[in-house]
Structures
1.
Amino acid sequence: MTGPTQPTPFLDLADQIDRLRDQLDVVWKTVLWGGRFVGGPEVRAFEAEFAEYCGVARCVGVGNGTDALELILAALGIGPGDEVIVPTNTFVATVEAVCAVGARPRFVDVLPGTLLIDPAGAQAAIGPRTAAIIAVHLFGQMADVDVLADMASRHGIALVEDASQAHGARFDGRRSGVVGTAATYSFYPGKNLGSFGDGGAVVSNDPALVCRIRKLADHGRSPDDRYVHDVSGRNSRLDSLQAAILRVKLGVLDEANAGRVTAMQGYRALLPDWCVPVAVDSRAEPVHHLAVVRVPDRAAVTAALDAAGIGWGLHYPIPCHLQPAFAEFAEAGLPVAEAAARHILSLPMFPTLNIDQIRRICDVIRGVAW
């Protein structure tokens, strides 16, 4: 626990875990005594509970969020010769999944306010080889899935939602996976719903797609005969212990997200006018995985935060189309993302961040002189 004059971490996982210690102790004993460490009842129960939480028909747990994206694309038959539209402002995993199946990423710019995928840019990028659009729900806010889903339907392509930073977020009252073909989640420890290691999931209302993903993630194994492998798959399964931990944390996810919303409200009320939080679409209900702001002089602000013992992060200082790994796919400049990358800064954000800590963070920022 940190106080108003003590160092404030960028993310405080220890405090969150401590509040669930008794329940997590039971989880550990249950899994240990049950002896089912891969698959089993804990995984099945979490899949059912998370699907219900998201408002979709099916969920399959996988090894991590990157695998989840790759498995969706592979199950949709997307591969060499296909193009997949992705926003350049995202973590590289989104692009890695496209490249892993042999498809070509088509980078598009983002909206100036929310820094989420620009639907007009996505529309302009659609061509004869386009197989899918990946809508990345970044920083805890969902992209405009209504417009993107209509666009995908008109062009006969898939809409894949990367919801790795948006556990519990809504757009027009619906959570991710309800509108698109499928949605992916990462349960990396720092996520709104995080495990104690790597983990991920795919949610969808398409049972046939989920069945194909489950098969691919389990060595291509037939659902009717475990000794028959219908296709060449891979090993990407959610461990029982992680599933059991996620079940406990899912039970308090809405409460934790509410804490993040309150913290973001505090930032908006107390930050100086020149420190501008990322905008929120009027139809969106974000869960504020990150508290991203734009500042005129990032070096000056981060130096002041460092001196005060306040954590910070950058999400993301290099747009994907400018990353060396993806240089061959960069076709033109994407000015909105490029300009934002020079000024964005992520402030501390976690459910138990209190108003005294927020006030101190904002006071430190307010005191920065150019």
2.
Amino acid sequence: MKTFAKITTLALCACLSMGALAGCGGEAEEVVVWGGAEDQTLLNEIVREFKEQNPDVKETIKVVVQDAWDAQSVVAKDPEKAADVILIPHDQVGIMAQAGLLSEIRDGTAATFATDIKTNNDAATVQQATYDGKLYGFPLTMDTYIEYYTTDIFNDEKQNLDAFLGSVDQMLAADMPNIPGSKEKATAFGFRIEDGFYLNMGFFAVGCTLYGEDGTDIDACNWNNENGLKFMQYAAKNFRQSGKKFKSDDAKNLATAVLNNRLGACISGGWEMQDTFKGATNIKYRTLPSITIDGEEKPLISFSNSKQYVVNNMSSHKPTALRLAAFITSEQSQLRYAEERGYYPSNKNAQQNAAVKDDPFFKVLRQQLDMSVAVPIIPEISRYWEAAKALGSSIYNGSLAGDDASLQAALDAFISDLHSTL
């Protein structure tokens, strides 16, 4: 009995001495970080380097696949089971912060997390990481969308190619060749009109705003004014599926269609450059084209966003989670994301690195970022996406009649949906 008691006491002491680092079963404490499926290789390498450079961190770190766009809804269902370190688009910061799901980022006694974020990152991304005066995100990337085209269809044989590609009207009026191996003609131009991330372009082009000039006024959306109606008239005429010259599909499908010469040009996110067009010699890109309203060229204006790593407010490992998030979003890590994944960095020093500053693709992306409007961060933005999807779908599928009364009614219904209960 004495021997058994002695063994039990020693075992208990061993367990207690491990503290938070391990349980009695010998299972180490774990910090979980989420990242997209396409970024797993790079993210695992960065996590391995973090462990090597921070030997005092005793927790194991596990990288798990989770799409950033769905992260907010997954965390909301069960915050305690969600990852400690979470990748999200910036427009989810306000929703998650208001719900108490995010840990506020502050300076500590041994770290200057908040100061470093504000000092080192593009001001736009710092603003996008901030809700109600508090900082919640570690910025990682900046992104918007641009125009891609295939030189197999739209090439230098056309007179004044740049002006041609800079005009939606000229592209839609072009005599298109047949799809390779088919008697069907290629489509001229496309973007995902049913997605609010792209539908905004035309409304912004004619001077409309979403939630006011700075995106913070929940009662200020004027898409149903006279200018908004003018864009709806243009869209109803030019962006219908039945017209055969315009194609709406998800960004990746559109990019693939351009690559395969089924589509002359499309508007797609910067992320497609790496994932779809890598190594392609027939793909070029430029800033967004214009549409003609009342005889005047109106440049389409993109939405922009940033991706941010945030820390789960329910995490039991916040000190390590904060350090890990800071490491993943550091200047050197962002340069790796730029070089290996084609993501434009938010870090100001990384932006000035020759690998980014002198890259032709990043130059175009930067130009468009400077002409873009950030997706609003307020929680009410969650009302917008479904309302925009319904409006865009009605334009494309032809269910919306083209007369002014019907178009105005659709815009009024859209505004009403924006003011529905959150």
3.
Amino acid sequence: MSAAAAAPRAADLVRWEDADRTARPERLARLRARMVAEGVDAYFGVRPEHMRYLTGFRLDDGEEKVAGHSGQFLVAAEDLVVLADSRYTIKAARQASAARVEPIASDLAVAWSSLVASVGARRIAVEAGFVSYALWERLASAAPDVELVAASGWIERDRVVKEPAELERVAAACGVADRALDSLLPAIRPGVTERELAWQLEVLIRRPGSGAEALAFDVAALFGPEAALPHGAPGDRPIAPGSVLLFDFGAQVAGYRSDMTRTLFVGEPSARDLAVYETVARAQAAAVAVLESVVRGERPVPTGREIDAVARGVIEADGRWAAYGHGLGHGIGLATHEAPSLGRSAASDAPLPSPTVFSVEPGIYLDGEMGVRIEDLVLFDAGGDGRPGRLEQLTNFPRGVLIVG
């Protein structure tokens, strides 16, 4: 296996925490500038990744399901308020030290009027895509003199450009995943089930000393026909020689995530399965080659749609199998799926931002038979402003044909 990023040390965690603390005032300044431009007095945020990015408050693995309104925040021109119920007030005071921690019970609407009055807001942007219609209506009724404005993508567009410490954490998470899959290989043998392999891979990611604090998302281990499900779940199906075994998984390090897919062969592959794999590999290589030409200064920065079209075109030109129905890739960072998008519909018409990280993951899926996807994360920086161009593949587990079992 190629050299993977080293497991983070305690000093790295401290350095990354310091980098975030130093960056937050500028992150907040960019949001406040957007608020002025949009004519709003405050911004109400609810997404866990936005909480961490702007305030420092973070929910541990799985806590978002039970935290209620804790960690949600209100940004005004001169105020930063973090909500916390009694379970989280101490934690919020420690982690969001630059914010005022406002005690909150289970019913936000009860406290809403006094909360918005405390920051002098009459027009508030709300992350509407993540607030239920019922809560929106209750907040509007609780403070009828305050106008709620739907906001979408404000912080996401800021987060798409990654700071150096963010890039380091994504790379470290990729290193955890690389080592975990490499360690799993001896356990792959006929008779072991998808569920057993998924669990063993999860243990390897979470084991002491790995550097991971959590999974990025649940592990997918899919054998044979199940590999044709782009987002399937492992079951009790035992693997047997003569088909593919697809893993889709990632680690989380200091809040930042990785995402990798590898399709392995259990025993010698058939000619058809090998041809499918090689076609997918050529599609991925073609997309990466375009990005390489950009950082060499040989062509302008493409859009996500254009990169998707390059990879899709390789599969379509081959003509034997239909190309993937999903997008070629997605951004990653504090969330597993974030901007930028590389796809036919969701991608922006603007050139790819940089520096950023996104996946390149073409696939071919044959219903009832097999599926192949190869997914890698790439760090893309087109350069400029005295900064040289850079393209680095952060996932380093081998991409070639690999026979196991």
4.
Amino acid sequence: MPAAEAAEFAVGPAPVLRGSAAGEGTPIVLCHGLTASRRYVIHGSRALERAGHRVVTYDARGHGESDPAPPGQSYGYPELIADLERVVEAEIGAERFLLGGHSMGAHTAVGYALAHPERLSGLVIIGPTYTGEPAPETLAYWDGLAAALEEEGIDGFVDYLTREGSTAEAWREPVARISRERMELHRDPRELARALRETPASRPFGSLADLAGLKVPALVVASGDEADPGHPYAVAEAYAAALPHARLISEDEGQSPLAWQGGRLSREIALFALQPDVALST
């Protein structure tokens, strides 16, 4: 059966968050990463809808079609988690659901899960990077990326990303191309400069030790460091080790990162949703 067209939605008050919901069945909410938008969690795949899920995605504040952070607010994780709470209230209601996210979205999802574990049937953590207090060299990289975006726009952003990142030579061209495509989907790409400075300096939760008390079934998706060094494999391993009920998966050697493979990633999430401890808790 063909998947139904996505229905657009907007959640207020300020900032207004714009997103889409498609499919019918057990709900799944997906959160994207920093400088991405709602398309870039499962990359347009419709496999989850065909597997019997209602898939809810939205653009984070200042990303895609959503409004920027209003005066007096920031792009820190407390606000990002509160935004997710607003989307859940508006689009999911009281129903239990499966929550997933990539990078910034993964940290937002974990922060939500720690605050509301009773709401979740399962948790999908894709490419996490946060392990505690951000390292000064990491923050310096994000500040440099923000400055490049402010001064030279998308061209400067992509140039800095490929020049200063540690991606292996064989993967630099696709990384540059995908990064440019992502940036061109934002209503105001330069607004993201503020997010580039504020989000990495923020804390979604205390430390990985906090995960020991999270009993929600979890699927952790790791990427190989050659293609995606910004999302270290070892960090994903650490999340899987810290969570009491987690399974770690990744792509096969030599393949593009599983986080980039929308169809296969969707199928892995669909299989995770069928696990008895996940399916029976919805």
